[in-house]
Amino acid sequence: MKASGFPEDAVRLRARTGAAAAFPSTSSYGQELFGATGAAGDAIDELRLVPPVFVPERLEKLIDLAREPLYSDVDLMTDIGGFSSTLPVYLSAFGSTQVANSSLGVDASRQAALLGIPMVIGENIVPVNGYASDRGLLDRIQAYASHVPDGFGGVAIQQSTEDADAEVWNLVYSHPSAQPLLDTGRLAFELKVGQGAKPGLGGMTVLAPEAAERVAEQFSLDPLWGDRVLRSSSPGTFTDEILRQQIRLMRNNFPRARIWVKLPPARDVSEAVRVAWLAGADAVTVDGAEGGTGWAPTSFLDHVGLPLAECLRRIGPVEDCLLVTGRMWEGTRAVKCLALGARAVGLGRAALLAVDTDPASGLLRLAECLALEMRLLISALGKYSPDAVSADDVWPSTAQKVEVLR
Amino acid sequence: MTGFGGFVARAHAAGQLVVQPRMGFSDPGRMRGGLIATKLADATTVGTLTLDSYTRVGANDEARRALAEGAALNGYPIVAHDAATTASVVEGLRGQDFPVQIRHGSACPEHIVDALVRTGFDATEGGPVSYCLPYSRLPLRESVRNWERACQRLAAVPGSHLETFGGCMMGQLCPPSLLVAISVLEGLFFAQHGMRGISLSYAQQTDLAQDTDAMFALRRLGEEFFAGLDWHIVVYAYMGVYPKTPHGALNLLAQAARLAVRTGGARLIVKTVAEAYRIPTVAENVEALEHAASAAALTSALPVGDGGEVYREARALIDAVLNLSDDLGRAFVQAFALGYLDVPYCLHPDNAGRARGHVDASGRLAWTSVGAMPIPGATGRSAGITSSSLLTALSHVERTFDWSPMETPPSPQQHLASPVTKTVMRIQDTALTAAREYLRDNGFVELLPAIIGPVTDPGVRGSKQVDVDYYGHKYKLMTSAILYKQASLLGFDKLFYIAPNVRLEPPETASTARHLAEFHQLDVEISGASREDAMQVVEDLVRVMVQRVVTTMPAELEQLGRDADAFKDLLVSAFDRRTHASAVADLLEIGHPQSADAEIDWQGEEILSRKSSRPFFVTDYPKGCRGFYDRENRDVPGMLRNFDLIAPEGYGELCSGSEREFEYAKIVARMRETGENPAKYGWYLQMVREGIPDSAGFGIGIQRFIRYVAGLDSVWQASAYPKIPGQVSA
Q: N or C: which end of chain A has fewer CB within 10 A?
């Protein structure tokens, strides 16, 4: 039988494998990173950065320096959620998927530290990998703390609903190994409300049956594949009051830590970021629908959640610390996001790929290139710090994109 | 040996540290009272007459005028008072068993020395450099001449004794080698002018190990230069910016006492808890003397060290000065003119002012710049000192001691055998007996508490639960009895436990004097009760327990130094009630940064606590700082129907309580608001879904309560088996 013009192959795959077909092939698990597949790029990619002729801020810089400013005069130092960062860039969370469980997580931590940029450690690491085990939370904290320069960077530790059972934050807050970070004001806790690649769902990993059995009390398990099991976290139930009170409780219980919140690209994202800031969050991360992941249903990757450009449009210009992630790897996308209201951008898949390319220095080199591009672009706009760029600096390519900036 | 030096030598030989206050009142009666209290203190003491500022600068007429007008001076005006008055102050007190020393601070001391000799004293303190550079604008040359004559006058008195103040100078930020050198050089100056009884001083600085070296250096130099004379070393408790918390001040003092004993110091000048704020009272001085003596009694001497780097630097400074002239007075003047001696941060015109000191990363004093001082191998940092780094350095000791862990408990054997522990445990027994009787008389049933369960109180403020492996399942040690208390309402309307709790508090709480990782609560729950009902029971219970202790154990309270009058107000007046919002407003008004939607922080609670003379309630805490079980006010969303009871005198929180959430949907929503995963509360939620009574209840922290009743410095003293957060213990 033939059915041209109809996704015949996909239907036949489902007919053969059932619910397992809702996901990518498990043979790619742990080898591949997933995300939206739109090859042509998204609305942010279509924007252009547009330098002006008249550059009053360059004149200010000229007066300051007593010589013509160059791109090298751009100062990229940025306050990210209460931490001093050498760049408006941080290392995004990798969760407990197999990709991040490898030594890549520790290598990435070390290099983020050397760069002096903050790092987020993802959810479910403690319940799945343990605290002090190889590649567990402690290893990553130690790799970071022993390489970070004085006065820069910081570590944000996620906790999701299931992590609450393991008391990840309580554990870290009272553990001697975290005290140097706490004492220097460089520890944050990030409340994970959701993520870009699968908004509305919790974290997901694929486990062998024996590994699944160990976590059966904490997580929901679904035997989708003959030899593998889907392990799901709950997305957690939030109302505005629940979000507000959770943030307040975090501030109350951990007065010496910074409080971060990570939101999915939800339709009420603008309301949610404001609830978070009003409740006292030091930073709110919005993960656009273009965001990457170690594992997600294919339907979510291309069809669920707002694009990052639309999230930024709905949130509008803000003074508070807004962090964004989703397909970040080079300078133009980063500078456009800063222009549209973000304080800094997070590197996720790009960081893992860089460390996979060279475990010793891959991320250092990626960041070196990114920093140079950012300096070139920001100076071309006649500006010399990341917070100086604004919506005036980008141009929508089509009338439709005018919407993006409204 | 007779006189002052002889008394100190005999005490030293007997293994006792002599402790001495700084104390001076212009009123003769009050001065005598101070000396009597010093003599009667439970310590080996010598008395002090600290002189007033008029007398110090030679303005004796002004001192007389002030006395005639009845104005209080800041010390005893020994010149202005006639000899008969001074004789009456010390009559029957001063003697071989209680010498009294005159302390002043004058660069023109001759009239003072005349007056003290005339009135029968033979011991005083000072020095041509140490009493001139820090305090006076008088040229050093003149101070030297004045002190030459003063020394000769005093040396004529048999058994007379003179202490150099050279070990203190500006009080802080002077690396120890210079203090040791000045102390020795002034001692040599005294000897050159006939003194035979000399004490060399050293003021406690920022780092115990460095201070230990400095004391050994001073001791070694004393043996080298003062053989054949009657000499000893006196330690000054820290002379810089003093800790503001009682435990910080007491710990710093105890450390000074230990420093003295470990290194062969014979005498200690104490400082008091009040020092950071005002001139201390007699009672505060006595407390300090006894605290220092008890710390000293538990300390033994270290093997003698060679003084290390401090000795080498000090010896180089001393040799350089001695080489300038055989006349030490002239050598002093030249040494300061050449910058061979250069006191950091001293603004006297004769001081070169090129030397700078700082507190290094390890907490030791180090040279930033040595100027022209002949200190071998000192390179110093080149970086300048900013005003903020200077302020940070000046407050280094204050911050370290205010926020340092409380002194740790001794070994279990020592702790359990200590008379203090035994008395405190008997007070606890009495209080709990009274509580049980009261509760039983009022219809409460005592249940025995659960120890472990699949879930426990999620706790607050960052404390971690303890996991227990229960047949392969993760169980918890109870952090509080709350869930089982609510469950027990199904069988009992009014119930109580004396329940153990384990909370792995953050290590920073080790220094609050009020956190233990293992503690007990008197936990009460009342079916159908309102918050106000529960508060009444708390108030009655506290009063009943305190009344029983005050009535039946007055001797024990006295033994602990606890003034029974502290409870006068508590026993007769109702406890005040105030809201969290008003407490926050008060704290903000006095400049304490208190968040309106969080728990009142420990410092804030201590501030409020110090303003009250009896326990008081704080009610209506905001949601977001308490567990899910405290009931939200249905009329004022976001506000809880709860309360804390705060003890007065800085002891802080004793008890938390509340009306309880009991409706299933409310509890689930509140669990989410506190970040909890309802899945793990299976048994509890199932029970709540089927219906539990509404209730109110509370838990009184037993060790905190006993700490308050017994007036203890720290809560660990109220536990037989103390576990301090972050510390490994028995």
A: N
